Amino acid sequence: MNISVSTTATLFTLEDNNSSKSYEASCPPEAQHVSLTVLLCLVYLIGLLLNGYSLWVFACKMAKWRTGTVLQFNLAVSDAIASPATPLMAAYFAKGSKWEFGRFACQLKIALLSAHFYGSIIFLTLISIHRYVMVVHIKQASPMKRKSFVKKLCFGVWCFLLVKAIVYGVVLPVTAENGHMQCLSIHQKDLTDAYFVINFMLFILGFILPFTISVVCYSRLANSLSRLKVHTTQGQAIKMKSMKMIGVCLLIFGLCFLPLNVVRTAGVVVKKYYPDHCQLLLRMETAYYASYILGGINCCLDPLIYFFGSHNFTRVLRKSLSRKIDQQPERNTKSESETVSFSAKRSAVYSISTSVEI
């Protein structure tokens, strides 16, 4: 009788072990299509070139910075720092979704991507608040109008992003899954709960809240601009550029950041509550990487904000693209811009154009 019970217990134990092994190996990672790698490299290469040029303009061609210029520069930095993570992601796809670069490279990848996506969201939100204050409350005092305060605010944002990256590097380590190393992957079974909690914190505090603030600020700004009566061609052009900038900012949130957050949220829910639906999980993983590439398009769209929102940036861009401008016309251009600046103080349109300028 004891032998029978022992044998039965052994059989149940073996069955449990086999079922456990079957569960662990039920959803192994699969190689992604080569098109994802190509698009990933293309998007972030274009973003690197555009933001690299923007940073050069800020650092070398714009002697006088305003409060908005500080925010704009930090937005360009947050866009540019995503580029070092691109080769790691491309190699990860090329190796069949297997991480072979060690723990430190994984932590570096997490830090760069976190600072890129959520740094961009934070600075875009701060730009929306800044423009709202400068236009809708143009005659009222505000800390957002002081360059010293804005610099300290940006420094605080970078400190927050650094601390967040360190925490993620500790909480989301590299793990071995089915004999292969994984980094920041939906296949890390032991980190399912951590991904679930972190995702909803990021979704609510890192996307919904900033997006709501931006929509409110830009709605008020658009309403203020729409009520402005303009009778000159130049005034109409300034007003139209401001409206286009509002459209670009909202497009970035809707096209780049909304799919990324929604797809990632759906992915962690599927992983937590339907872990044995392998085909669904693999499709969610592919959808997430596609939305990741869409998120990278913000690197290419953000320079449009600089173009529509900054007269100085537009002027420098036009000068750099024109090879027929000699030194005398440059002095004339400067004189003309000073004249426009003087006239702006006596006109509501020009007052808005100079105060809103980033």
Automatic annotation (TrEMBL):
Keyword Membrane in record: yes
Alphabetical list of Gene3D superfamilies matching this protein: Rhodopsin 7-helix transmembrane proteins (1.20.1070.10)
Membrane-related topology note: Multi-pass membrane protein
Give the record's GO CC terms. plasma membrane
Q: Does the keyword Iron-sulfur apply?
A: no
Which SUPFAM superfamilies does the record cross-reference, listed alphabetically?
Answer: Family A G protein-coupled receptor-like (SSF81321)
The alphabetized UniProt keywords are: Cell membrane, G-protein coupled receptor, Membrane, Receptor, Transducer, Transmembrane, Transmembrane helix
Q: Where is the G-protein coupled receptors family 1 profile domain?
A: 50-306
**A GO molecular-function annotation:** G protein-coupled receptor activity
Compartments, record wording: Cell membrane
What Pfam families has UniProt attached to this entry?
Answer: 7tm_1
Q: What is its main location?
A: membrane
For this protein, the parts annotated as crossing the membrane are 36-59, 71-93, 113-133, 153-174, 194-218, 245-267, 287-309
PROSITE patterns assigned: G_PROTEIN_RECEP_F1_1, G_PROTEIN_RECEP_F1_2
Q: Which family does it belong to?
A: Belongs to the G-protein coupled receptor 1 family.
Give the protein's recorded name. P2Y purinoceptor 2-like
Origin organism is Astyanax mexicanus (Blind cave fish)
